[in-house]
Amino acid sequence: MTQSMTQAPARPQPVPTAETRPFWAGAAEGALVLRRCGACGRLAPPLAPRCPECLGDSLQPETLSGRATLKGRTRLHLQPLPGRSGPLVIVEAALVEDPRIVLVALDESGCTAEAPPGTPLRLGFAAPDDGTRFLIVLSAEGQP
């Protein structure tokens, strides 16, 4: 067996686009960054090429609080990511700044296990060994 066959496959890395570059640049610094429309003030989801409200293209990066509300979660029992074993909990979280924007995060600590939908969350970033930061749930209300 060759060395490449015995090593776990590398985790897929994000490829920033013009739309997602502010998000990934913020993530590298540990900050949740989305773009806000200069014309109408609406936050745009990470993949939006234009403002979803007025279709304006003057979107400027803005650092957000990381506060969100639990919308739902699922537990994967299969090997969900290269180099990681299950189960893995994936959470949908609506941002406090604009609840129409729902982001997906990992719950690595299990803090949402008993939390009902609507529970306040704190989102942030964790860096695995390869240095790329991914969105995680830092805490849920009433949890450490």
UniProtKB/TrEMBL annotation:
Top-rank lineage group of the source organism: Bacteria
Every ChsH2 rubredoxin-like zinc ribbon domain range: 24-59
Q: Which InterPro entries match?
A: ChsH2_Znr, NA-bd_OB-fold, Thioester_dehydratase-like
What residue spans carry the region label Disordered? 1-22
Q: What is this protein called?
A: ChsH2 rubredoxin-like zinc ribbon domain-containing protein
